[in-house]
Amino acid sequence: MASVSLFDEAINDGAPVPGVDEHIITRIMRFHGTGCLLLCLAVTIFSGIVFSSCTKPAGEDDENYNSSFTVNPKVLKVGVAGGEVTVDYAINGPMEGGIAQVTVGSPWIHVRSVYNSEFTCIVDANDSGRDRTGKISLRCSGTKPLDLTVIQGTGGGDSPIYRNFRIEVSDVTTSTCRVQVTPVDAGKTYIWTPVRVADYEKETPEMLIKACIEQAESLAVTAGTTPDKFLSSGILDTQKLDASMRPQLFDRTDYYLAVFDISYDKSKKKFSYSGDIDLLKFRTLSAPASDMKFELRYDNGTLTIQPDKADETYVFNYVTKEAWESVDPDYAAQYYILYATKKGSLEVCKNLLRKDLTQDPDMERGTEYVAFAVGYHVSETDGGLTTEVNYIEFTY
After folding, report:
1. Topology of domain 294-395, per CATH?
2. Which residues contact 337 (CB under 8 A, 6 or more apart)?
3. Could you tell me where the beta strands, DSSP code E, fall in 25-142?
4. What are the tens digits of pLDDT across the range 241-271?
5. What number is the average pLDDT over the span 102-125?
6. How far is it, in rounded angstroms, from Cα 376 to Cα 87?
7. Which of its termini does the chain have fewer beta carbons within 10 Å around, N or C?
8. Residues 318 and 332 sit within 8 Å (Cβ to Cβ)
9. Beta strand 118-123 with 109-114: parallel, antiparallel or unpaired?
């Protein structure tokens, strides 16, 4: 059984992106001089991409929906004492201003009031002695349904939620950490993966599970094997793995280490899972900070980058403006560094740099682009971004 996370399998194998149209991936990022695409991972595909977060009612197709709910976040964390939870929502489209039908799927959650912009639920105190999750569903005629997840622990709202696995994260650096996973049921197979908190809390746990399933299926096709080969079993300790199989993380970023039970029936070619996800929050370290500043200029096909410090290193890249607007600047820089490093194409620079973009066959005349530069400290222990991401927009 595999011990490496799907995050790192995707980076190593360059697997197709699960659940995302190819034209969306094509516009996410194109690296200078390579023409390669930014291959989003199972754990990071939420960034900049909108997914449906609801289950389609039987017999209804997407074209029957002309409106959609907007709610953020979609994961509600409630302390052990429970209490009132008020959630703002909106309906976008022709049904704007409509009142949602709010229902709950757990006896310890109760609907108190519903208006056209918010609803309030009462959550009972958790005296069950165990962590628990529940569901709140939003429905409205002509509007795509939406399900929210409620997480309630036994030791306060920020306590780890353990259902099927004991998780430990230690030895955290700017780029990796030690992960230990112990299944409560030694016979269970599972998937473990780091996921940015910002990404996880935009969507539902179900979305992460489905994304990982699609990633495992894609990797299996690439490797010429069955998806169960990418499930883990038994006790995991990444300290005992080869360094290349340990988590590869972005610096100065909040993460969840997510673990969920999942099995694969070879005869039916089907996955099954409980839907429970165990989470442990942690934050990667920051690289040594720098006050280096950049001047970026574009003129007649030439990109110029001028740092104000000659002895410090930086990286740069350029992407379509459309792609840039679908991710945040740190994410764009960090993913470029991670991907380019794995492919052996990362260019670390010093001093003045001039790049002749006319030599890049992937550049398209009349297209809007964004060029960025960011200080970057090269180190296995504390490497990472050292400045804010500086960028300019230009039309080629």
Report:
1. Immunoglobulin-like (2.60.40)
2. 315, 346, 376
3. 67-70, 75-78, 83-88, 90-92, 101-104, 109-114, 118-123, 132-140
4. 887 778 888 888 999 999 999 999 999 999 9
5. 93
6. 40
7. N
8. no
9. antiparallel
**What is the model's pLDDT at position 86?**
93
Q: Do domains 6-52+161-282 and 62-152 have the same CATH topology?
A: yes
Alpha carbon distances (Å) from 155 to 129, 170, 275: 10, 21, 22
Residue ranges per domain, the chain?
Answer: 6-52+161-282, 62-152, 294-395
Joined tokens for residue 101: 């039908």
Long-range contacts: 79-82, Cβ < 8 Å, 24+? Answer: 79/152, 79/153, 79/156, 79/157, 80/125, 80/126, 80/152, 80/153, 80/154, 80/155, 80/156, 80/157, 80/159, 81/125, 82/108, 82/122, 82/123, 82/124, 82/125, 82/126, 82/152
**What average pLDDT does this structure show over 162-174?**
85
For residues 22 and 13, what is the distance between their CA atoms, to the nearest angstrom?
A: 17
Tell whether domain 6-52+161-282 is in CATH 2.60.40.10: yes
Q: Say if pTM beats, i.e. exceeds, 0.70.
A: no
SS3 106: coil
CATH number, domain 62-152: 2.60.40.10
**Which structure tokens are listed for 65?**
């929906």
Instruction: Kindly state the greatest CA–CA separation across the chain.
Output: 68
Question: Among 109-113, 114-118, 155-159, which is the least confidently predicted range?
Answer: 155-159
Question: Which residue intervals of the chain are DSSP H helices?
Answer: 6-13, 22-28, 197-200, 205-223, 321-324, 329-343
